[in-house]
């Protein structure tokens, strides 16, 4: 049919760019991700490959604690922003 499927990640990219994030700063992974653990592993791998030390991970409010917990377990680094939010109190 020739109809381009626009997935969730592409809609997310459009929203971020519309909100002022430079399109070059938004990275969509080329391969499918099946769960949060795999996603965090891939984020860490991509950051290391690019020499990045910070990332903004956009997720739902219900998913934030899981992402933060898995990030700490798998990557083991806490950003200054995470420390500040933790010090400010629970979500």
Question: What does this protein structure show overall?
Answer:
This protein is mainly α and 91 residues long. The protein has two domains: 1-30, no CATH class; 32-91, no CATH class. The protein is 51% helix and 0% strand. It has helices at 8-18, 36-50, 64-74, 80-88. Helix 2 (36-50) crosses helix 3 (64-74). The longest helix is centred in the middle third of the chain and has 15 residues, at 36-50. The radius of gyration is 15 Å and the shape is globular.
Secondary structure layout plus pairing:
Blueprint lengths: L7 H11 L17 H15 L13 H11 L5 H9 L3
Which key phrases capture this entry?
51% helix; mainly alpha; 91 residues; 2 domains; 4 helices
Could you say which overall geometry the principal axes of the C-alpha atoms support?
globular
Radius of gyration based on Cα positions: 15 Å
H/E series, N to C? HHHH
The helix fraction, in percent, is 40-55%
Q: Can you tell me the residue ranges where pLDDT is under 50 for at least 5 consecutive residues? A: none
Would you kindly provide a brief summary of this structure?
Helix content is 51%, strand content 0%. The chain is built from four helices and no strands. The radius of gyration is 15 Å and the shape is globular.
């Amino acid at each position: 049919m020739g109809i381009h499927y626009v997935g969730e990640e592409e809609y997310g990219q459009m929203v971020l760019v519309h909100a002022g994030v430079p399109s070059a700063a938004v990275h969509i992974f080329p391969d499918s991700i099946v769960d949060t653990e795999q996603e965090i592993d891939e984020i860490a791998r991509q950051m290391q490959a690019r020499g990045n030390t910070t990332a903004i991970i956009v997720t739902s409010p219900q998913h934030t604690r899981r992402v933060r917990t898995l990030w700490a377990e798998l990557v083991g680094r806490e950003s200054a922003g995470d420390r500040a939010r933790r010090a400010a109190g629970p979500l």
